[in-house]
Design a protein that fits this description.
The structure is a single chain. This protein is of the alpha+beta class and 866 residues long. The chain is 41% helix and 21% strand. Strands 6-5-9-3-2-12-15-14 form an eight-stranded mixed β-sheet, with no helix packed on it. Strands 17-18-19-21-20 form a five-stranded mixed β-sheet, with helices on one face. The chain has a four-stranded antiparallel β-sheet with strand order 10-11-16-13, with no helix packed on it. The chain is globular and about 90 Å long.
């Protein structure tokens, strides 16, 4: 067995409490690039100034390159050394001009960090520590510089040259080459540096700011993709206006550019004035993008634009403060998306995502606070905790302060810290001052890991016309944090009549700060029913003693849409868990509740579709002491089959309603109808109806949009009919030249509930179109398969072996992407000893590979320790 301590002996740990201000600053930097995919020369001219009287030598981080030349104040020097990849130069004065020249090879950069080649383009990704792979520099977020960038390149191969800031000048050179110069007047950390060179075209528009300034907008793509950029451009204009209206924040440069690239480790990057996007979040048209894709484009465009203030104008002092920009900006993009359609459905989607990714993270070996205390590789902390839980922390502050107080706090934060590198503590202090609140105890949300669990019970004294709500809270132990003080939990609560379902008074915001508390409600003459954590006002697990009858009534009468959805989900969850635990369960209450929901004419189709969906296999497993994937699948499948059969007429009516709408329209109502139609089709198929797969295949062939086509394909892929293979072949032949749509072809099969899914996935890994070098494709097959609870957790362990094999190979190409796919293996303690031993063995095998990356060592070792 591998000694974890031995594996961890060499990687250096960075700790939050070891932070020290930079000894040297770089107020100005000028970069000159001689661009070529095989060999790029980078000349850097740094103005450096001493920031501490006892500053040591200047240390410039590097990424494996060796300097061709080094000068100080215009004089070549040999008085330098390389230490752990960093260039160290002894300097005696307080201010100097330091120049370096290096040579790098973008086309050999498979890590996709720094300057790399993608589909004929040259582009950059520098967050978190990629800039050091381009040139020597103090690669930390609290060194802010003004950048001037000059690029020269072959004009035929790279006719478009883009960088941060605003364009300054451009021109032609002898030999078919040309040049362009850009300048960014706003100080920024090097992680926000960006450069793109390639054969691109732009979808252009103009946005006029609230002060009357005209901003030139451009969405840059390959010529063949230009017709898929209108949605992204419209989303950009809408988000710019929204940020002015809601936060009073105006864009500050003369241009704003977005570039789509196919090979990208993340979703997108907020580089100042030049956002670089994974093409998945730019390209969208009805034939190739689902409604979910359209929504994702809007949300990510908004997210990266909002970073202009919450991330760029005010950035992070150090990487431990990552949620300062990411959690805040996720909250902002969630609010934006909620304003564009159904706020209730958006909240449901956000909470579902939190429970699918962050709650398991909090309950597993990789649990960490919103502001971590240490890391080996910061790239491993771009997690659901930082982003999604971080957003929930901001949301709780907004709830407690109210709209006016929260806006006052954000105004103070932006104004006070503009142009600086700030901390989470700076943000909280502004919320306290602007909102007039004491958030001392609330700070535990930044320092404690784990998901709080709340118990709630309601007593009624009819003679006194009083109801008493008893609340308790505890946060389970997490690695390194066994004992935890109580959290601040803002819980929205309301009472309803247990017999009538009518409201018994107004909603109240109860802020729980102690381990236990009692809250009284006077004037309650009839037996009450509790609606709690409405709008999901706190990211907690709530345990109540509500019966199936109580939950069914709330699912029909609660006036908070999220609470209504939550009651239905809890009813379904309780039923499935009873079946897993006891081998049987009464399906009738769930079926009756769904029927009542479908018959409610006041509910919009989008909400209906969400309300009647069963909880996922993985979420069900999270509620059990030991996860049994096969038992969960059988229990869930049996309930799904009964719902389909018992309500088949209603599902066919819902399906017909969706079919009745005309051609494709991207609107909240049309999206809701398509979503409900897809859900209805799934239930019709689950019922065993003889014509279900013909209905699905007919929809597949007649579809005028990807939402309907993929929805039908998913139904066919999960089934046993011969039309499954035909549909997959048709889909592949139609879209084999479109990488983003082909990703759907891979992931749809990897997520199938069929018994032979593992064999299908193993074959797909040998397909000519599968590659680990593209992160999207790796995630589409390996990532999707690893969250398929039934196939991945096959009792013989072959699913674990397959994923481990892929991660070992991927780690040699792209450690960041590989490390992010480790967590499903890391949950080994949640399963039976037999499965757990198999998962643990694969983690040990990964760590035993010679040359395993620091990224993988951190993720796999922590998973084993957990």
């Amino acid at each position: 067995m591998l000694d974890v301590n031995t594996a961890l002996a060499h990687p250096q740990v960075t700790r939050r409490d070891a932070y020290r201000a930079p000894e040297w600053l770089v107020p100005e930097i000028a970069l000159a690039f001689d661009l070529d995919a095989a060999s790029t020369r980078v000349h850097a001219r740094l103005q450096v100034t001493r920031n501490a009287a006892d500053a040591g030598p200047l240390r410039l981080d590097g990424g494996g390159q060796v300097p061709i030349a080094v000068t100080v104040d215009g004089v070549a020097t040999d008085d330098w050394s390389l230490e752990d990849g960093a260039l160290v130069i002894a300097l005696s004065g307080d201010a100097h001009i330091v120049e370096t020249e290096v040579e790098i090879a973008p086309e050999r950069n498979t890590q996709l960090m720094g300057l790399y080649a993608s589909g004929g383009l040259l582009c950059t990704q520098c967050e978190a520590e990629g800039f050091r792979r381009i040139t020597f520099f103090p690669d930390r977020p609290d060194v802010l510089s003004r950048y001037t960038v000059r690029m020269t390149a072959d004009k035929a191969r790279y006719p478009v040259l883009l960088a941060n800031g605003d364009p300054v000048a451009s021109g032609d050179l002898p030999g078919g080459r040309h040049w362009a110069e850009w300048h960014d007047p706003f100080p920024k950390p090097c992680y926000l540096f960006a450069l793109v060179a390639g054969d691109l075209v732009a979808n252009r528009a103009t946005f006029t700011t609230m002060s009357g300034r005209a901003v030139a907008l451009g969405i840059w793509v390959r010529a063949r993709d230009l017709d898929k950029t209108d949605h992204a451009l419209a989303a950009l204009q809408t988000s710019m206006k929204w940020d002015e209206d809601v936060y009073g924040r105006e864009y500050d440069l003369d241009v704003f550019n977005i570039v789509a690239v196919d090979d990208f480790n993340f979703g997108a990057m907020e580089n100042k004035g030049l956002n670089i996007f994974n093409s998945r979040y730019v390209l969208a048209d009805p034939d190739t993008a689902t409604d979910y894709d359209f929504d994702g484009v809007s949300a990510v465009v908004a997210h990266e634009y909002f970073h202009n203030w919450s991330g760029n104008r005010v950035t992070c002092r150090d990487w431990f403060q990552l949620s300062l920009k990411e959690g805040f900006t996720v909250y902002r993009d969630q609010s934006f998306s909620a304003d564009q359609g159904s706020a209730a459905v958006k909240r449901i989607e956000d909470v579902r995502g939190l429970r699918a990714a962050q709650f398991p993270e909090d309950a597993g070996p990789l649990a960490h606070p919103v502001r971590p205390e240490s890391y080996i590789e910061i790239s491993n902390f771009y997690t659901a905790t930082i982003y999604n839980k971080g957003a929930e922390v901001i949301r709780m502050m907004a709830t407690m302060l109210g709209p006016k107080g929260f806006r006052a706090g954000t105004d103070l934060y932006f104004d006070r810290h503009d142009g600086t590198a700030a901390t989470c503590e700076d943000f909280i202090a502004c919320m306290e001052e602007g909102g007039g609140a004491d958030l001392t105890q609330f700070r535990h949300w930044y320092s404690q890991a784990g998901t709080p669990r709340v118990t709630a019970s309601l007593r009624h004294d009819g003679s006194a016309a009083r109801a008493t709500l008893t609340l308790g809270q505890r946060t389970p132990p997490t690695p390194g944090q066994a004992e935890k003080p109580p959290m601040v939990l803002p819980l929205r609560v309301k009472l309803f009549g247990a017999a009538t379902g009518r409201p018994l008074g107004d909603e109240r915001l109860v802020v729980l700060t102690e381990p236990t508390a009692e809250i009284t409600f006077d004037g309650v003459t009839e037996k009450p029913l509790l609606s709690i954590n409405r709008q999901f006002s706190a990211p907690v697990v709530v345990e109540t003693d509500r019966t199936a009858q109580d939950l069914a009534l709330l699912s029909a009468c609660d006036d908070d849409p999220f609470a209504r959805y939550e009651a239905m989900q809890q009813l379904m969850l309780d039923t499935i868990i009873a079946s897993v635990t006891h081998g049987r369960a009464d399906h009738a209450p769930v079926i009756a509740a769904i029927a009542r929901t479908l018959d409610d004419p006041a509910l919009d189709p989008a909400f209906l579709a969400e309300a009647v969906l069963l909880p996922s296999d993985s979420f069900i497993g999270d509620q059990l002491p030991i996860v049994d994937p096969e038992a969960i699948f059988r229990a869930r499948d049996a309930l799904r089959r009964d719902i389909g059969r018992s309500l088949e007429d209603k599902w066919r009516a819902a399906y017909a309603q969706g079919q009745a709408q005309g051609g494709f329209v991207y609107s909240p109502v049309a999206k809701g109808l398509r979503r409900l139609k897809s859900v209805a089709l799934g239930y019709i198929a689950a019922s065993g109806a003889g014509d279900a797969h013909q209905i699905a295949f007919d929809q597949f062939e007649a579809a005028d949009n990807m939402t309907d086509r993929q929805g039908a394909l998913m139904t066919l892929v999960n089934g046993q009919s011969n039309t499954r293979v035909a549909a997959l072949d048709i889909f592949y032949n139609r879209y084999s030249d479109n990488p983003l749509v082909l990703d759907k072809w891979f992931s749809t099969q990897a997520l199938s509930s069929r018994e032979d899914t593992a064999d299908i996935v193993f074959d797909l890994a040998q397909h000519r179109d599968f590659t680990l070098s593209n992160p999207n494709r790796a995630r589409a097959l390996v990532g999707a398969f690893s969250v398929n609870q039934r196939a991945f957790h096959a009792a013989d362990g072959r699913g674990y072996r397959f994923v481990a094999d892929q991660l070992i190979a991927l780690d040699k190409l792209n450690p960041q992407t590989a490390a992010k796919l480790v967590p499903p293996l890391g949950r080994w303690k949640r399963f039976s000893p037999e499965r757990g031993a198999l998962m643990r063995a694969e983690l040990e095998r990964i760590l035993a590979v010679p040359g395993v990356s620091r990224d993988m060592i951190e993720q796999a070792s922590r998973s084993l320790e957990g």
